Amino acid sequence: MKISIYKIILLAVCILTGSSCVDLSQGPKSFLSEEDYFAIDGAAEKSVPGLYWKLWKGNYAFNCRLMRLNVQADDIIVSPTKPGNLLNNIANLSPALMANNPDFSNLWENFMEVICESNRLIAYTPIANDNSKKTLKVKAIVGEAYFMRALAYLYTVRIFGDAPMLIHPKEAAVDMPRESVESIYTKMIVPSLERAMEWLPEVSRTGDSGSPTKWAAKACLADAYMSMAGWPLHKTECYEKAMNLSLEIINSNRYELMGDYASLWKEENKADPREFIFTLQHSVANKVPSQYGKSFYPIDFYPNAGWADYYGDLEFFNSYPNDDRKKWNYMTEWQVQDPVTKEGRIISYTESNDKLPAISKYYDYDNGQPSKSQLSNGVTSIYRYADVLLTYAEASVLAKGIVDDLALECLNKVQNRANSIVTLTKDAKEFEEAVFNEKGWEFFAEMRRWFDLVRKEKVGAVRPQVWNNSFYKAQGHYYFPIPQGEIDLTNWNNNKGY
């Protein structure tokens, strides 16, 4: 499907105004221009929730596609027995352009839509030149658009590399060039987040983590700096910037770790603002469910079999310390139907159809009844306070070359919460490795392991069995292909190898 920036803009205008967009030869006669629409008092506030819906996109964008992308990492794995599983191409580090087209096109289109919608809010929302309560409220709304634009671009450059620089809606054109990853970071992501930090409030508009605050912007910018410090830019000076931003969040005393790890993943706590900094808030009743239903449960689960889309990787599972996180994150035995009596009986994962531990991290999101429904509630965590603590721990040791007391304290807080093994070393290299491992365990199945592996260039180390014959090693990059429809439309050169 060919989707141009022009089409995205036109569609958005139609949605906003409720007008027909059939006869493109006529000028607008019966609907507001974008400038006029956003000039209406309260229009921006009514429009901004659409940014989060576009990020979620009926469960088939951010949640679904990022989870599929992350089978390239070492924490989750695809079913080894599912026939004709297109995920195998991605899991084997050799994505195939045609075979996996929805995984590429949906992500690309999703992020471009978020960017274009954010640009409209930024460009057309009038902001008075004063410090009135009304003006600050409008700035806060526009600050959300700056945040969302930056977040969408951050994932775009991580996944696709070079991308068009969309700053103002009227500049969008099919003949726009792809700008370099470095340019997107320095001219778009960083400035957008700096403006978001300036305009966003300290307490979210929605009263939960479902809309960003200035602290969420700081967390996102720290995340961006960590990526800039690693592959492909290797701007190691950015470690200090990430360290300082994390320190600001820590010193704000706005956040804390929840008392126990399992509490994070219970429906009753999804609006709790203590640890979650920015999330997608899901609700079946409000028609914004998550994908955390049948995808994670085994095909032989009785009486509500799952789709077995994802399991825990066995090697990663075996490396996981026997702490509270491991107990919560994995299901190692479950009920199957006895072939003789036709009644339920409990088996170990080693006796199961796929012989892999199941993922139970989001068990409570379906009212404690795994795989009863394909739809479920809860949150998709994008940033939480554990991110901040572990970012400070990693960034500080890489910026300073030493393990300071706060870095050790940050790492130990996460470990102690999990009743895990506590790191005591002050050796910089050993400490860095401990933080890296801790991030893997803490954020298991949260769709971020792949990005950590890439920025630290550890894919080959953790997946040596497929690395040598992988597309990424052969081509010298870790990027997905730009969707073919976009290439046909723009005449861009695709990423190497596609």
Question: Main attributes?
Answer:
single chain; mainly alpha; Serine Threonine Protein Phosphatase 5, Tetratricopeptide repeat; 21 helices
Task: Describe the overall structure.
With 498 residues, this protein is mainly alpha-helical. It folds into three domains: 1-194 and 468-498, Serine Threonine Protein Phosphatase 5, Tetratricopeptide repeat; 201-288 and 377-462, Serine Threonine Protein Phosphatase 5, Tetratricopeptide repeat (Alpha Horseshoe), CATH 1.25.40; 291-371, no CATH class. The protein contains 21 helices and eight strands. It has helices at residues 5-17, 34-39, 43-47, 49-56, 62-69, 87-91, 101-124, 133-160, 181-199, 214-229, 238-252, 314-319, 324-329, 385-400, 405-417, 428-442, 449-455, 459-462, 464-467, 471-475, 484-490; strands spanning 76-77, 276-282, 311-312, 330-331, 333-337, 344-348, 358-359, 378-384. The strands form four sheets. Strands 1-3 form a two-stranded antiparallel ribbon. It has a two-stranded antiparallel sheet with strand order 2-8. A hairpin with a 6-residue loop joins β5 (333-337) and β6. The chain starts with a helix and ends in an 8-residue tail after the last helix. The model is unreliable at 6-28 (pLDDT under 50).
Enumerate the strands of the largest sheet in spatial order, edge to edge or round the barrel.
1-3
Structural class: mainly alpha
The CATH topology assignment of the largest domain is Serine Threonine Protein Phosphatase 5, Tetratricopeptide repeat
Number of helices: 21
- Tell me the CATH architecture of the largest domain: Alpha Horseshoe
Radius of gyration: 23 Å
| Parts with pLDDT < 50 across at least 5 consecutive residues | 6-28
Number of strands: 8
Average per-residue pLDDT, rounded, comes to 91
* Shape assignment: globular
Sketch the topology as an H/E string, one letter per element. HHHHHEHHHHHHEEHHEEEEEHHHHHHHH
Strand content: 5-15%
Sheet with most strands: 2 strands, antiparallel
CATH class of the largest domain: Mainly Alpha
Overall number of domains: 3
- The proportion of residues forming helix, as a percent range, comes to 40-55%
